[in-house]
Design brief:
Elements (H helix, E strand, L loop, with lengths): L3 E5 L17 H9 L1 E5 L1 H4 L9 E3 L3 H5 L5 E3 L6 H17 L4 E4 L8 E5 L7 E5 L1 H8 L3 E4 L4
Parallel strand pairs: 1-2, 1-5, 5-8
Antiparallel strand pairs: 3-4, 6-7
The structure holds iron/sulfur cluster.
Length: 149
């Protein structure tokens, strides 16, 4: 088995979130000790700054990849292309190292897997994937979140 695995950097204590903070998860940190981990932050890799204005998707990540939905910041800017670029960069790393698995941060418009915010910035969740999770799943990568560890 390829021991390499992708993990959302904020789960390991990297301060890459929109608010300039991290979201450390002990189970992800424990995994880091056992596996050969590559940390990624798709939003930074897509060219967004930290801190940054929070964003939400208007629909599922797969629909965003098809050009049918968007990622919009709380102040109304369209950052869809940054999110797509970040997802593509993560996929590039995955292909480069022949990685098959990823642990991504739940509910994020990039990393969320199965649960995302509904695009109204009112803490309402809907079923769906973030843009990076959707692209990885589309390419046959097993994506789980910190809630599955
Ligand atoms: S894009 Fe992913 S890794 Fe980066 S801060 Fe958001 S949830 Fe964490």
């Amino acid at each position: 088995m390829n021991k390499k695995i992708i993990i959302s950097a904020c789960l390991l204590g990297v301060s890459c979130r929109y608010d300039g903070r991290s979201k450390p998860c002990q189970k992800a940190i424990d995994l880091y000790k056992k596996r050969d981990v590559i940390l990624v932050c798709p939003e930074q890799m897509g060219g967004l700054s930290t801190p940054r204005t929070p964003s939400e998707t208007t629909g599922d990540g797969l629909e965003i990849l098809k050009g049918k939905e968007k990622v919009i910041t709380k102040t109304g800017d369209d950052v869809t292309q940054n999110f797509i670029k970040g997802a593509e960069e993560v996929l590039k790393i995955i292909k480069l190292f022949n990685i098959k698995e990823a642990v991504l941060k739940q509910k994020s418009p990039s990393c969320g897997c199965g649960k995302i915010y509904d695009g109204t910035f009112s803490d309402k969740l809907i079923k769906g994937d973030g843009v990076t999770a959707a692209l990885l799943k589309k390419n046959g990568i097993k994506v789980i979140t910190e809630e599955d560890l």
